[in-house]
Design brief:
Layout (H helix, E strand, L loop, with lengths): L1 E4 L8 H6 L5 H12 L5 E4 L7 H8 L4 E5 L8 H7 L1 E5 L1 E6 L2 E6 L10 E4 L14 E3 L10 E2 L2 H13 L5 H6 L26 H11 L4 H5 L5 H8 L5 H15 L1
Parallel strand pairs: 1-2, 2-3, 3-4, 6-7, 7-8
Antiparallel strand pairs: 1-9, 5-6
Helix pairs in contact: 7-9, 9-10
Amino acid sequence: MIYVIPDTHLGHENIKKYCNRPDNFETLIENNWNATVTDTDTVIHLGDVSFDEKRIERLGKWRGKKILIRGNHDKKPYDFYVACGFALVVEELVIDLNNLIILFSHRPKFNHDCDINIHGHQHNLAVYDDTRLYLPLSIEHMGYKPLALDENFIGGLKKLVIKNKQPTLNEMMRLGQNAIGKPGNKDFYDGFGKTIFLQSKARLAECYAIMDNAPYNAARYKYRLWRHAVRYIEGKIGKQEFLQTIKKFSEWTA
């Protein structure tokens, strides 16, 4: 069996506040993982494992063969994650499951050419690109459990692909994300902890696309360019100021 899990954030104290996680969320994740996954199963981790090396090493000893799709917080060298127990470390992964071409990534991959993109990062169920099919996964909505890519799950995805229909919130919840009940405001709009209105969805998609391209990708973490993207998304600065600012920082990196 193949399982998928996003954004464990082990040892990240502020994630409790940002995402309303219980104090024992690390224990919940570990217990649920080891009670669900067997040593012959594979777990695709969609990134943001932990800030703490010891916790990464601990997760690497949990059951199953582990694949890491690096998130924005997974900044250690590839060899470090392999030494911790990850069999494969990649930026994204494409798998054919029962004639369904699925792209797994940490962030949503805008303008992808697969049947559907399964991703994490947002900690909500919002979709920002209406031109492709996406399934955002939120570990909070999943009840801190790995999600099985079984026949029922793949069958549900196939129905969406055949219809070429972006899943509704209810459909996403039926696909293993119904642990916390009714979605909140951020599941409709954004991942920044407050409502961003629909007019900003296009700006968010635009920022993701810009940041995924050189030279901005190289400077993204060093100069925390996403802070300026958020200001643009929220309408605090205009597009010209945003582009000029990130261009300046990217030139420092070059």
